[in-house]
Amino acid sequence: MAGHVSGVSTRITSLCKKAFYIHCNAHSLDLALQDLTRTSSSVSIALNMTNDIVNFMRESPKRLNLLDTLSGLDSYTKLKPLCPTRWTVRSSFLNVLLINYALVKNALTEINLEGGRVAPKANVEQFILSTANGTQDCDDAINIIDIDEFLTDDINVDRLNLELMMLPDYFSSINKEKKLGLKKITKISTVCELLNAQQLGKTMFYEYCKLITLYLTVPVTTATAERSFSVLNRIKTYLRCTMSQQRLNHVIIPHIHKDKLDLLDLNSVCSDFISKNENRKTFFGAV
């Protein structure tokens, strides 16, 4: 994508000199998280320990049966393996372990009491202390700043809240005065049109206009075509594995462009489909 010889960014720049390359935000965040994890021994130890515990439970049908027995009549979410490359999957892996924390703890205690070769692997106390201390260390280290404090220099939040309270009445009055006939605002372009209808709008809703300007100038970091990879992962089912490539493409396109698909009239689509074939007319009936 970013190749200096024949990459997409180079080709676009050759057509539009003012265009500039923007790194994929998700990719940059993923790389930053990986580097952060490598430099934090607490995070590395916690991930390695949880991975060992999950693998220890999953690699033995006997231990999985023990989980089923201890859960009783209550169903529980199956433990997932730790993905070595995809961080989004790691979050679900940790969430499942936290949900089943009490169940896994009881199972490890049971295995530890039984003794044997596998007993040293089930170090319950170390697991509990490391998990608790690791969570507290992360909370203390992050110390997330409140969004209001973070945006103090950019947006006056108090004034913005007042403007938001006045905004519906202003839009309603402009709609009646200009006879626009708007019943519901669904596009950002409509909001800009209403604010530009009078100079008073920009002055009265200064912070709101500033917020819209920031929204409209946020660099786009993901192209529509790239979303097809995520879509393919979501529909990776038995149906996908047994369908042809042509049908798979046809399924992906409406899934990606759902906003346009929702605007279609299904009755007219069905009528058009039936009317193009005599056998369809006979089978479905005249439309």
From TrEMBL:
Residues covered by the HAT C-terminal dimerisation domain: 208-249
GO molecular function term, any single one: protein dimerization activity
Organism, as annotated: Rotaria magnacalcarata
InterPro entries found in the cross-reference section: HATC_C_dom (IPR008906), RNaseH-like_sf (IPR012337)
Taxonomic superkingdom: Eukaryota
UniProt-listed Pfam families: Dimer_Tnp_hAT
The name this protein goes by in its record: HAT C-terminal dimerisation domain-containing protein
